Amino acid sequence: MKPDLEPIDEAPATVELVDVVRTYSGASGEVRALDGVSAAFPPATFTVVAGPSGSGKSTLLRVVALLDRPQDGLVGFAGKNVSRASTRHRRRLRRRHIGYMFQQPADNLLEYLNADEHVRLGSKLRADADPRRSLEALDMLGLSDRTLHRPAHLSGGEQQRLAFAFAAAGSPLLLIADEPTAALDHTAGARVLEALVSLSRRGLTVVASSHDPAVVEAADRVLRIAHGRVEAS
Length: 233
Fold this sequence. Notes:
- By secondary structure, this protein is α/β, with parallel strands linked by helices.
- The protein is built from seven helices and ten strands.
C-alpha cells in the first residue's frame, strides 16, 4: 500500500484489515477484543458484522472507522496504509471521508444544533457543495417536519434517525453504523435499512453491526465474529 500521508482520492473506499490485533486493559487483565482479524470491505457493498455481545463487533467498527488504533496488523483505507498515521491525519480522514453512527443517539448529536443544522454541518465537513442532498435524507427518514427541533425535543427514535442522517450527510466514502435499528420501531427501522441499502447502491462502503434479522438479510455480505476472531464471511 502507498504511504499514509498521501491524500485520499475522491473515490469509493475499500477498507482492509490484515491480522489486526486490538487489546484493552480490563479488571481481570488484558482483553483481546480483536485477535488477528483480516477482512475487506469493498465499495458499493453493504456489510453486516454479526456476533454475540462481547464478540468484538464494536471494536472492529471503531478500528475500521480509524477511531481506535490496533496494537498490531495493518489497516488500509482507499489504498493507503493508515495503520500508523498520526492522530491529526486520522482525524482529518474521519471528518472528510467517514460517517459514523454510534449506538447511543446522545453520542452522535450536538445538543445546541437542530436537525437541519446537523445535516448542514455534516455536508460542510465533507465539502459537499450541495447540502440539499443531505436534507433529502431527513425526508427519507421521516424527519422533514422536525428540521428545526434540537435533540432534546426529539424522541429517542427520532434522535437515532437524525444520528444516521448526520453520519450520512455529505456522502462520505465510508459509512459505519453500530446497531442502527436497535432503538427503532419496525417502521422507523425499515426507513434506516432502506437508506443503508440505497447508499451502498450509490457506491458508498457501508458497514453496520446488528442483531436485527432484517438488517442481516438485507446485507450483501455478513462477517461473523466471535471472541475477537472472524468465524465466516
